[in-house]
Amino acid sequence: MSKQTELYETLSPTRLFFKFAIPNMISMAVTALYFIADGIFVGRFVGADALAAINLVMPFINISFVFSDMVAVGSAVQIAIHLGEKKEQDASRIFTTCSLLIVLASCLIGAAGFFAIGPILQLLGADAAVTALAVSYVKVYAVFAPLIMVFFAVDNYLRICGRTRYSMTINVGTALINVVLDYVFLGVLHWGIGAAALASCLGYSLGTILSYLPFILKKLPLRFVRGKIAPRLMRNIFFNGSSEFFTNIAGSVLMIVFNSVLLRLSGTMAVAALSVVLYVDNMVISILYGMTDSMQPAISYNYGAQLRRRMLAIEKRVLLAGALIAAAAWSTLQLGGSEILTLFLKGESPALTELSLQAMRLFSFAYCTSWLGICLSAFFTAVNRPGISLLISLGRALLFPLAAMAVLVPWLGLPGVWLTAPAGNALAAFVAAAVFVWFLHRGDRFFPCSEPL
């Protein structure tokens, strides 16, 4: 019995959930804590303008990662399904092709970002000081793009091979290295905002090298092999990863719209307030995505093995855990928002603190429903239904929030911006639940599975 068969077919769904989900949730939580620590260091040692600058460019940094995310998620689904069908050589061929594709694409994306970010920020209407800070931050990421964009992709491949603890160790170690470097570069050496990006890139680069080491040493079922994959399969990989692609694009576009509206309504202060809220939001969403991403290989494998009942048992545990995480996040932000803000805004104006607190408490209502859309979108990706996943993801990340913003901002003003996410997520959750119920009633039409090479 292979290790994948033992893990995915015989281990109880509850034990399988804890074996895969908990390490990845810890990894994502620590990584998100690093981003929070990064915001704390930047806010305290560089200032509120630097926080606003990072918030202005973070959508563009996220956009730069969307191609690698699309290929990683789409290929992970097909790799897991092929392993479920006991086609290890084909799975390794997909792994090799997609790893090389991500590295090549990241070189082009990094070059484009290095030269284009300045003119883009000027079009947004940011002042000269914030623009200069933002450009210096992005250019560091652009230089390191070939090493850091593949970091999050290889994490998917490690989890497919059952190396959840190794993946967790690398993610935690990378985050801790980033925090230490942030402290040294910003708190001790006072190098400025570009050093914050440098700390991140150095940590991720080391993480990429260590993540690929087991594959290079041929200690895992997936390994680097020669050969090509069919164009039809590559199209399926792109299509199956399209929900993540368009989710990241849509989320980044939404943040650009948010920033433009906030600049018009309340200036840089409102953008700085949103940046604090998004640092906290990144923690919650990272944990949810960490959980759903970690269970995708198990769901895809059981889908490929045509173990429908077992696959749905795993998904039930994902949904329950998602609801519990969301409830804990909402309660924490409602009751402890003031204490969280003091970490970021020490010495800043009372007006900024009050504005950030209002934003945090209104924005947190998004967690009451966001977990459902995230969990079900990941499920449909795992069972090779990219169209449904894309429908849910695009609605949650862009279409429903934009519709809510068009209604709420003219009616409520600035509070309407903070309530856009709760309203948009509620609409997306309703659609996701309705589609999931319809999908379950399809019965035996649940399959077929993989695409041929």
Number of continuous helical runs: 18
Multimer state: single chain
Largest sheet: none
End-to-end C-alpha gap: 25 Å
Shape label: globular
| Low-pLDDT runs | none
Percentage of β-strand residues:
under 5%
Beta-strand segment tally: 0
What structural category characterises the helix and strand content? mainly alpha
- Give, in order, the helices and strands: HHHHHHHHHHHHHHHHHH
Radius of gyration: 21 Å
Mean pLDDT: 82
The residue fraction in helices comes out at over 70%
Quick take:
This protein has 453 residues and is mainly α. The chain has 18 helices and no strands.
Observed structural traits:
453 residues; mainly alpha; globular
Descriptive overview:
- The protein has helices at 3-10, 13-45, 48-64, 66-84, 88-124, 128-148, 151-160, 164-188, 193-216, 231-240, 242-266, 268-304, 308-344, 350-363, 367-382, 386-412, 414-418, 420-440.
- It is mainly alpha-helical.
- Helix 12 runs antiparallel to helix 13.
- It is globular, with a radius of gyration of 21 Å.
- It starts with a helix and ends in a 13-residue tail after the last helix.
- The model has no long low-confidence stretch (mean pLDDT 82).
Set down the secondary structure blueprint:
Elements: H1 3-10, H2 13-45, H3 48-64, H4 66-84, H5 88-124, H6 128-148, H7 151-160, H8 164-188, H9 193-216, H10 231-240, H11 242-266, H12 268-304, H13 308-344, H14 350-363, H15 367-382, H16 386-412, H17 414-418, H18 420-440
